[in-house]
Amino acid sequence: MFGPFLFLFPLLLTVLAVRAGMSLFYTVQQRPERSYLDDDPLYRRHNGYHDPALYHPAVLQSRVFKLAYSLGGRVTVSDIVIETGLSVDEAESLLQSLVDNARVRMEVDDRGMLTYEFPEIQARAERERGGPPAAGDRDSDSA
Which residues contact 41 (CB under 8 A, 6 or more apart)? Predict the structure, then answer.
């Protein structure tokens, strides 16, 4: 009934066994997984070396807030470009993503200069300089 196909079954088992044995001795070279940062415009490569941790959005946001703190709560796109190494468009996109009019707000002065203000950081800087407490400040409520 199975006459001519009877020899194929042991042959198939032999091929599968050899294949399984080869996988124990040879490592299969696999394509590295794509990082979610590969498509992120804020992800940068410098001189063939890249450190994705430096350009992760959360790390960049932290760097922006630290820079704002060191500058008294007011930064420009140029400040971000200098600090992070991002392009002007990337720095502007990063700052725009932070604008929520509570922690970060965008202001345009009389000369048309665009600055990003961090009210919480500005209030803290005022307290540290010994200036008058801001409206709604905890210290002024208890006085």
Answer: 90, 93
